[in-house]
Write a structure and sequence with these properties.
Length: 218
């Protein structure tokens, strides 16, 4: 079972998510919170697998709540927002969130994303995430990081990182590079370990921040 904590300051929104997720045999909604501070406390007490996190909330916003939960290692965080170019959502990604979805995402896509995050993957493929990263990371939205951090990677690993940043799945990367999917998974694991990254989302962010990938590439 995937244990989920719902966090949104709108009770009606939480009710909608609860109805969608409650219909899934492999999902158990273990708790709800109406602000980020309650979310942090409940995540610590309930230890859910995934926190479905709103970003704009009273008392403590979803960005800071995500940061605290990620630093504590209590759960993975999937950020939900109403806006398709939301700087708050980007900040949440930078602070440890494993994905980003719009609140009007179709129920099937929401459930798929939840399962992906729970299994240790990250939601980086939706076009809205690419636009978000392109706007705030690659188009004057922030200072570039020193690309020297990438020197730890082999040429093949850099190649795989570029394709991750472009939103390709392991299967698509394997097909493009004529590798087995198992080999690609190995490369991804080494990239994350060498760069001390939590997941694919952080790998995408780093690829943009170091200038390895530019908005036009996406």
């Amino acid at each position: 079972m995937i244990r989920v904590l719902l966090v949104d300051d709108q009770e009606l929104m939480r009710m909608g998510f609860r109805m969608v997720l409650g219909a899934q045999e492999d999902v158990d909604v273990v708790g709800e919170a109406g602000n980020g501070l309650d979310a942090v406390h409940l995540a610590e007490r309930l230890r859910p697998d995934v926190v479905l996190m709103d970003v704009r909330m009273p008392v403590l916003d979803g960005v800071e709540a995500t940061k605290r939960i990620a630093e504590a290692g209590t759960a993975k965080v999937l950020v939900m927002t109403t806006f398709d170019l939301d700087e708050y959502a980007l900040s949440a990604l930078r602070n440890g969130a494993s994905g980003f979805l719009l609140k009007d995402t179709p129920p099937g896509d929401l459930v798929s994303a939840l399962r992906a995050v729970a299994s240790g993957d990250a939601v980086v493929s939706p076009s809205v995430t690419k636009r978000l990263l392109s706007r705030f990371l690659g188009d004057g939205g922030g200072e570039l990081r020193d690309a020297a951090v990438l020197e730890a990677l082999t040429e093949r690993e850099r190649e795989v990182l570029v394709l991750i940043a472009k939103g390709l799945s392991n299967t698509e990367i394997a097909r493009k590079l004529f590798l087995s999917e198992a080999t690609v998974k190995t490369h991804v694991g080494r990239i994350l370990a060498k760069l001390e990254l939590r997941d694919r989302v952080q790998a995408v962010v780093l690829a943009y921040e170091t200038g390895l990938v530019r908005p036009g590439d996406v």
